[in-house]
Specification:
Low-confidence stretches: none
Distance between the termini: 21 Å
Largest sheet: 4 strands, mixed
Number of strands: 11
Structural class: alpha+beta
Helix content: 40-55%
Mean pLDDT: 88
Radius of gyration: 28 Å
Number of helices: 7
Length: 262
């Protein structure tokens, strides 16, 4: 959702700039159009006079002033819409501050984790799972540049959306935990999740470069290996995809979490 807001804000600002630039080239004055039977008459007024008839030979001026009227109304709407989106973004970026107490650096973390799940009968097991150490992906540590609410670093903004959504719903996960598949080798799934009700392991792979042909081949090869080893999409594997033109929507992430875990 935040990404969509930012993209719409970028388009609005671009449109505003274009309209303002065009308005600077239009001469002063105001146009009024009125119907007279089947005909339309034009009337012109500048800052120091009342309306007077504008003959048809002045069509170029009429076109410019008509566009001015349209652009001014459109600019008023766009500026109000921009303000509304900016307010929404401020709200989206607000945090209650409570998540700080659950970060790995917090001295309160161990005391709060027993209440980490909505399902109290599994809270102790979930807390133990969340606190247990695991082998994480040691490769390309410089690629981890994006901060999550949990206080860790991930490799993309989309992974931040997934991590933060899981964290907000108090669903314990591990980022890039090593998964040994025996003769098939090993992977580091983006997210390894402990189901809060059934305590079963769910893997979540986000494929974020699906407009790259080489990436697509590797992604589907990985899915083949997963399936052959009993890790099957919609059963115990969640898969999400995006391209530059079609980024993942936070609504989709929320819907998946609710369907799978809540």
């Amino acid at each position: 959702m935040i990404r969509q807001f930012n993209e719409e804000l970028r388009c609005i600002n671009k449109h505003i700039k274009e309209l303002e630039s065009k308005l600077n080239t239009i001469p002063p004055g105001t146009l009024c159009c009125a119907r007279n039977g089947n005909k339309i008459k034009w009337y012109f007024r500048n800052e120091s006079s009342s309306y007077s008839y504008l003959p048809k030979k002045e069509r170029k001026l009429a076109e410019q002033l008509a566009f001015k009227k349209y652009a001014q109304i459109e600019l008023d709407y766009l500026r109000k819409k921009r303000s509304a989106i900016e307010n929404c973004l401020q709200i989206c970026e607000l945090s209650s501050g409570a998540e700080v107490l659950l970060t790995e650096q917090s001295p309160y973390r161990d005391l709060i984790l027993p209440y980490y799940s909505n399902h109290s009968r599994n809270s102790e097991k979930l807390a133990a799972w969340a606190q247990a150490e695991y082998i994480s992906n040691p490769d390309y540590p410089d690629g981890k540049k994006f901060h999550t609410k949990k206080g860790e670093l991930v490799r993309s903004k989309s992974e931040v959306f997934i991590a933060d959504a899981l964290f907000t719903h108090r669903i314990p996960y591990r980022y890039e935990q090593k998964l040994d598949l025996g003769s098939a080798g090993y992977f580091f799934p983006d997210f390894t999740v402990c189901h809060p009700r059934y305590l079963k392991t769910i893997y979540w792979e986000h494929f974020g470069l699906m407009d790259s042909e080489d990436y697509v081949h590797k992604a589907y090869r990985k899915l083949d290996i997963y399936t052959l080893n009993g890790i099957i999409p919609t059963l115990n594997l969640i898969t999400t995809f995006e391209t530059k033109e079609n980024p993942i929507d936070s609504y989709v992430i929320e819907r998946i979490i609710k369907d799978f875990f809540l």
